[in-house]
Design a protein that fits this description.
about 80 residues; 4 helices; about 0% strand
């Protein structure tokens, strides 16, 4: 059980770095909203662990650059599944 917001931010950061996870995936694993994960990673983590934040920021930037591609692939998959049904 995560005891505080500070501890939670570090746990989220470590999880993202170890698995190169997205904000949504991290939120799903921990059972919190993606807004909570994003706020913890972008506002709390830099003050608590600047070195971990640098690693997390790289992953967040990479995910941001790829989101339009992932969205397009998800839509393509959606329509392919509908066509098969």
């Amino acid at each position: 059980m995560i005891k505080s917001d500070k501890e939670r931010a570090v746990v989220f950061g470590e999880y993202m770095v170890s698995r190169k996870a997205t904000v949504r995936a991290t939120a799903k694993v921990f059972g919190v909203s993606k807004s909570t994960v994003h706020k913890d990673l972008t506002e709390r983590l830099p003050k608590l662990s600047p070195s971990l934040y640098k690693k997390v920021k790289l992953i967040l930037e990479e995910n941001k650059q790829q989101r339009h591609i992932r969205g397009g692939l998800a839509t393509k998959h959606k329509y392919e599944e509908a066509k098969r049904s």
